Amino acid sequence: MPTTYIPTIVKDDAHREGIWCVAWAPSSDLVLTGSLDNTVKCWNGTTGDEKHILEGHETGIISVDTNKQGTLAVSTSIDSNIRVWDLENDGKLLHSINAPPGQAWTAKCSPDGAFVASGSHSGNLNIYKIEDGSQASSLSTKNQFIMSTAYSSDGKYLACGADNGTIYVFDVEANHLIHTLQGHALAVRTLSFARDNRTLISGSDDKRIHIFDVQHGKVAAALTGHNGWVLSVASNPDTSKQQIASSSSDKKIKIWDMGLHQAIETHEVHTDQVWGIAWNVEGTKLVSASDDKSVKWFASSGSS
Amino acid sequence: MASTNGHVARSRTIEVPLQHEQVLEVVCEDLPGNPVELTDIFQQEGVGLLYYRLLAFEYYRQSKYDESIKVLRAGLNAANGASQAQPRQKLPLLILLATLSIQLAKMSVDATQKQTYMTEAVQLINDADRINNQYEPTFIIKGILYLQRGDLNEAFRSFTMTLEKLPSCVPALIGKGRIQYTRKQYRQALKTYQSALSYSTGNEYNVEIRLGIGLCYHQLGMNAEAKAAFKRCLQLNPSKSNPISLILLAIMELNESKDRELGIVHQETSLKQGLQHMQMAHAANKKDPVVLNMLANHFFLTKDFAKSVKCATRSYNISRQNQVKAEAAYQVARAQHQMQQFDDAFKHYSEALQLNPDHILSQFGIGQIYLKKGEIDKSIQYFDKVYATEPRCIEALKVLGSLYALAGKKEKAMECLVKVLSEIKDDAMLLIEVAQLSEQGDEKRTLKAYEQAVELYKRQATENGDESHIMPEVLNNIAAMYHMRGDLDDAEHHYGLAVKECERQMSQADTDDSTKQRLAGFELTISYNLGRLCEDKGDLDKAVEIYKNIINGNPGYADAHLRLGAIEQNKGHVTDAIEHYKDVFDSNANNADAWTMIGQAQMSMNEKICKRSFEKVLKDCDKNDLYTHVALGNYHSNTARELKGDDKRAARAEAYKLATGFFSQTLKRDPYNVYAANGIAITLAERGHINEAKEIFNQVRESAVNNPSIWINLAHVHVELGQFKQAAVMYENASKKYFDNKDTNVLLCIAKMHFMVGKADKNAEEMLLALSYSEQAYEADPSDKTILYDIALVHQTYAQLISDLPKDQRTTEQMRKAITGLEASKSGFQTLLDVSPEEHVHYDRKIVEQRQRHGESLRTQIERKLADQVQFEEERKQRTEESRKKREEEHRRRDEEIQERREQEELDRKRMEDERQRIMEKVRQENLLLASQEVGESDEEEKQKKKKRKKDLDDGIINDDEEMEDADAEAPRRPRKRKEKDPSEKKEPKRPKRRKSEDLDADKPKRRVRTKQIIESEDEEDEALSPPTNPTEVEASHQSRIRDDDDDEDGEE
């Protein structure tokens, strides 16, 4: 039975410029959005009220993420600046890591909150220690610009997607490459591990979403339906639902059934490309962020 | 129709008195084959001329013309030889002989022979005239001769002359009637025939006269009378059935059988009778061409074409009348046409038209044959003729419409078909044709026509009690229309219906193989369309599945391969895409589309070999392919653009020349080709002919409003002309409208415009816009390092701008922003410098280094200036604070004043109100008093009134209402009095009171708002005014700038 997600809260003009990324911090129930206006904003996940403005980036924010508990936030900007914020302390800036120029693009926080992984122009996947901002390691790929990264929720795997469509999966503990996944031929802008830690979902400029079986390194399914670049994918944390949410430059948000490999609903509520989409930890609500400067919430018909 | 001289032999024997009282009995039924046997006896016996005549006449009756002539000649010889014979006795023989000659002339096919008979007849008549020029039969025969020659006037004169002398001369009357009939004077003809009938005694003439009468009646529209006349003919001569009246009857009856107004029963009897009469006519005279034509027509209708041809051919051979002959030829042609012997049919149609150029049906037929042959223009010519002579012939108009459509004259075709549609509303095929015609131009009309057609089919089906079956072609077309319009769901629905219909028809037992094949092919098309639909719906997997299915069954289906390739290409698998395109060559090595797609794919990989693929198209596949021409034009144009620098000037010019050549070739083939025009304009612009280029772009834009590249190019031209603001607007519109704001090039163009404007106008806001757009471009395509350069450059330029601004036009905030920007810019430049030296980059590493150094020095400059600025702003803040205080003080004072004034007003009002109430009360009491008093004390009342008025005036309150009431009081008093007793009296004091309170309530807040607004706007004004702008200062501060603009622009590009 597909759940229907109903548009609920709408924050128009949430930022002064287009919004490029969104994350939902689990424990603190904060929604974080990053924008071209150089700020990260924190919103009450339930009411949509603005809580904090995280300022300091000098260029547009391209990614925002939190650790598993939702106590830390990590944001990156175009100028390779990584900033770590303390969400328990009104979003106080903890660190500003100035990666060497061009050595950071979108970043993800490791589930335990100890590391930040970010792709680079040169094709390296750089891992920084949050504690002191030093570089912990650098995993190299084939010199292609790494546009997206993702940790599995158990922290075992780290995946990254390149601008030529190749996806690399690393074993974090062993610190080595375990799979090179082919399938996309255009840039992979977004990656998301499903809660089972074995399924990786990717979205590409080829308008498709691929579902990979990480253990076997194979494409399990390719989902078509978007009519533009797939800019963001997110798997529903509620594993019983087997759902993926995706957003695209075609201004649409789609919810997919992983079992049926089919879109079960489509929302056209934004007036410009939708850069980011995120679930709450229960998997009952969604939030989307778009170039139209708005942030919009959706709630499943069963939840409050 | 022979007319003879007066006598009719009734006896079947001729008794010829011989010499010696002997009598020779000639049995008419048994005339000797050679009349010489008899004439020899006549001659020897010196028999009178009368008997020659009788004998000849008998031969004539039996249609033995030659024998008859021989007898007459023998008679004339005898008369010439015998001296006792009077010349006048020869006259009847001469006349009969002349009649025979005319008859023979009529019957002869050969023209020269005809002529001989005619001259002979003339000679005989002249002979007769020499003997006696007042002999009436001569006039008649003269009339007949003229008639035969077609000289109606002379003939008419002869007959009239005869009738003057012998008003009851039946043959003359008949001749006259015929002439009148031919002259279409049917009434007069009828009269003449009727008088002939009254004079006529024998049956022989009766038939002919009644035929004439019948024809006249028919022409006069009196069909019943006409038929009666024809039937009378038959009754008159039952033994020798008269083919002419029979056939006329048949024609009339057959015509009646076609007349729907008569009802089906009548029609059927008419048909039956008509056919009967026709057969009888044929039985009566197997050689009558008209009958034969009728018969041919009948056989044609019963689909016995061979017999039809046979009859018609016989009729053609026998007939000597052009019109009848033409009809016969037409009958032959029509049957052959039906038997698909088109060449023969064509020959016979032409023959018919030669014999009778006005034969409409032959024109129709020949038009059809031209259509069959594919000679549309000639066909149109014939149908045009048909339509011109028969403007009510909808059938011809319909065909004409279709023909114009085939000939590509759509407007004319539409004109015809719309006319037809106004006549026939329920022709689904016609609607479909109209729909197809308007498919290219008028979408709405097309769909409407299709929908009407479908509706019609459905209605007809329900009327007949079947399920509706619409041609799958139509359903497919409807679906395609929806598809193109973007109504994807409707399209899918109709494609589904089309497939279903195909399958239904396939499964039907009576479908033959060729139809099945056609349907299968058609199903393929529909499934291909469905594939396209899936693509448009974004369901690429299903689309791929469909295309693969198509290819499995039909490996040669090129379009499916091409789509598979296109899907791969869109996914970025260009090499795979090319493989798919190449699959097409298995079935067709010279498929232009496949080569074009390959060329395009190669071009997208930036491979120079695309040129070869395109050239292959022009060389081997289609040298007129427009797309390829444009593609090659673009290729050369791109090549030219890459050839930068002075040393490559010649090569560049050469490439542009080639590009222009290809574009011109395209335009030569298709003068409305937007892409080629666009291409030419680009080459013009690239070579510096900006205004000409703009001209062309503007023209193209008008004809192709929705072509994004035109808008972009126009914007480029505005850039070249230095109109950055207009350009920015155009870029922004195009970006939003066509590229969803994610085309990096367009975004960068917009950024550049804001950058240029920002620099030119020293406008920091514009510079920030430039930054925003550059960052958007970078987000869309972060792998493009040149954007990083642009971002860094914009940051730096912003800092420069802020640094150069006079103190009072910038803020410390802006300066801090500039410094952080310089940080970002430094790291950006560093990224670019860090790129490994092997990698080819689109920027000059040295310039980046210079930039970075410049950024550093700029930063120290700004940091130095920042301290000054802080101080400056501090002072300014104080100043503003002071003035603010001053202002506040003033406002406070003003507020107090206002408050005071208001209180005073309030007091005044209250006082007035009290006074007023007092007066009112007094008036009320007086009124009450007055009411209780008698009317007689009116003087008193008057006085009091006046007094009251005076008081009012003293109070200074001028109340319109009250004055009005007072004016009323001057008017007749009685009604007023009654009024005062009414509840309305309470109104008086109340009304002004309410008004006043209303005014007060309304005024108070209003005034307060107004003052507040004033205060606010004053605040704003103050802020906006300080610091005051000083243009001279702006100018002065920019003298220190040491920047080279060229450098900046290169970086932006």
Automatic annotation (TrEMBL), chain A:
GO terms for cellular component: Cdc73/Paf1 complex. InterPro entries: SKI8, WD40/YVTN_repeat-like_dom_sf, WD40_PAC1, WD40_repeat_CS, WD40_repeat_dom_sf, WD40_rpt. It comes from Mortierella isabellina. WD repeats lie at residues 12-53, 54-95, 139-180, 181-222, 223-266. Pfam families: WD40. This is WD repeat-containing protein 61. It comes from the Eukaryota. Keywords: Repeat, WD repeat. The keyword Transcription regulation does not apply.
UniProtKB/TrEMBL annotation, chain B:
One of its GO terms (biological process) is transcription elongation by RNA polymerase II. Keywords: Repeat, TPR repeat. Gene3D superfamilies: Tetratricopeptide repeat domain (1.25.40.10). PROSITE patterns: TPR, TPR_REGION. Pfam families: TPR_10, TPR_11, TPR_19, TPR_8. Residues 955-969 have a biased composition (Acidic residues). Residues 870-914, 929-1053 are annotated as: Disordered. Residues 1035-1044 have a biased composition (Basic and acidic residues). GO terms for molecular function: RNA polymerase II complex binding. This is TPR-like protein. It comes from Mortierella isabellina (Filamentous fungus).
